[in-house]
Amino acid sequence: MFDATGLAAVKMPVLLIRPEDDAYMASGANALALVENLPFRPQDDVVPVRHFIFVDPCPETIAAEAALICSDEPGVDRDRCIGK
Fold this sequence. Notes:
single chain, alpha+beta, two-stranded parallel sheet, 5 helices
């Protein structure tokens, strides 16, 4: 999906933001493939959070049932991280 041939037409700058702890979804299969296969080196920012920080905060009714997706480390402000 993210091979060099498929990405060859990308001509604009790319900002790639990825989580430091991506144990749930291995970076090697996605974000790092972009870094390696774009025709130029993107700005690659690694943030000290887990994968699901990029998802909107969960409603309380869902948070208890989906802790993997809805919970973050102490001190993490998901609203701030996603630009709200």
